[in-house]
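Deliverable D2.4 — example input (structure tokens):
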């Protein structure tokens, strides 16, 4: 059963500006010519059928919804094909690697005295985030990419057998189209709803115990 705590917080908090904005967007959708959804009917058959049935019964009629997914784009340039992490995967056993892709949200302080141009490609300081000596202790167990990595190509590689993911919809589609099961670690927005869909409805993902409290044990 889907719990209220799994719903996006902007929907259940009625007194926020974000909630008012979302409701206004939903009202304006009724005036659109059509609604494009990045999904496919085989994946969400029940939801798509319910949506179509509801649209046909609504008065005035609601715009028709079109499933145009899965929209997954792989890179085609040589730099990505020869990316260090892909070369590393070539030496690993089939389905022996778990991909951990942690989503990052940066919010520079507006009143910071030394205001410098924001560089979205800047590498994060992992030494400040991780326990002391972590990178050195684990260097023989895997590979860490501090910046962007070709996620679609990684998931397509035969060495990858699992994906620890924040349950963003684009990443979910990338995993599904490559046949990689998902270990769900949602952060915010609609991601807890996506976890419910993966773990309870589709049975292609598992819940990670402790992630809702912010900490996951080593045993888990």
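Example output (designed residues):
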């Amino acid at each position: 059963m889907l719990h209220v705590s799994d719903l996006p917080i902007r929907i259940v908090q009625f007194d926020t500006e974000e909630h008012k904005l979302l409701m206004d967007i939903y009202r304006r959708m009724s005036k659109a010519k059509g609604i494009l959804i990045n999904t496919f009917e085989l994946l969400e058959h029940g939801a798509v059928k319910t949506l179509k049935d509801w649209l046909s019964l609504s008065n005035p009629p609601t715009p028709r919804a079109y499933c145009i997914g899965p929209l997954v784009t792989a890179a085609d340039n040589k730099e990505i094909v020869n990316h260090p992490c892909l070369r590393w995967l070539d030496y690993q056993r089939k389905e022996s690697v778990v991909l951990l892709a942690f989503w990052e949200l940066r919010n520079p302080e507006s009143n910071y005295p030394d205001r410098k141009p924001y560089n979205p490609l800047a590498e994060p300081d992992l030494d400040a985030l991780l326990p002391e000596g972590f990178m050195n202790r684990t260097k023989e167990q895997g590979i860490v990419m501090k910046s962007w990595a070709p996620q679609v190509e990684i998931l397509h590689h035969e060495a990858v057998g699992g994906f620890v993911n924040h349950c963003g919809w684009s990443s979910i589609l990338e995993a599904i189209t490559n046949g990689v099961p998902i270990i769900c670690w949602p952060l915010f927005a609609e991601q807890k709803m996506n976890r419910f869909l993966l773990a309870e409805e589709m049975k292609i993902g598992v819940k990670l115990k402790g992630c809702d409290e912010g900490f996951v044990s080593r045993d888990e």
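The two ends are 23 Å apart (CA to CA).
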